[in-house]
Amino acid sequence: YFWSSWTDGKAKITQKNEADGKFSVKWSGDKGNFVIGKGWNTGSAREVVYSGTFNPVGNGYLSVYGWTTNPLVEYYIIEAIGTHNPADNPEAKMKGNFTSDGGTYNIMTKKRVNKPSIQGTATFDQFWSIRTVNQVGGTVNTGNHFQAWKDAGLKLGKQNYMIVAIEGQDSSGDASITV
């Protein structure tokens, strides 16, 4: 498994990269941003099976999360959220919806300007599939999302890493996930 841990330095987190596909994180203080997770050092169309718990107090995401290059894209397949739905952002552009793995997802995109990326500070697009009803545990067929994005006119590049991720933004909470 590929392990990834990013923080802006403001988030107060305790993280554990445990055996096999398991990891856990606790966060507190209602400040800062982090993304932590476990997966693969090259993303692909695959069935991602995961289980666990996700208990945000405030804004948080449980997602299959990854990056591509050429073009540089940050992508999220959101399975569960805390108090904030990224589709509520006025900069978000809705691109439709589709059904996969027993749930309906809304597709959206948003441009990030001069923000942190896997290539340093950069301008890039975010692609989002947001499950309309939270689910913690199950299967995510990433290929279905990649195809739905393509059908909506959203172009991915060469796959970089892809993880099952926990993200917290100015919040608190805990999560324990097995991939």
TrEMBL record:
PROSITE patterns: GH11_3. Its EC number is 3.2.1.8. It holds the Pfam family Glyco_hydro_11. The active site is at E74, E167. Residues 1-179 form the GH11 domain. InterPro entries: ConA-like_dom_sf, GH11/12, GH11_dom, Glyco_hydro_11. It comes from the Eukaryota. Pathway: Glycan degradation; xylan degradation. Keywords: Carbohydrate metabolism, Glycosidase, Hydrolase, Polysaccharide degradation, Signal, Xylan degradation. GO terms for biological process: xylan catabolic process. It catalyses: Endohydrolysis of (1->4)-beta-D-xylosidic linkages in xylans. SUPFAM superfamilies: Concanavalin A-like lectins/glucanases. GO terms for molecular function: endo-1,4-beta-xylanase activity. Belongs to the glycosyl hydrolase 11 (cellulase G) family. This is Endo-1,4-beta-xylanase.
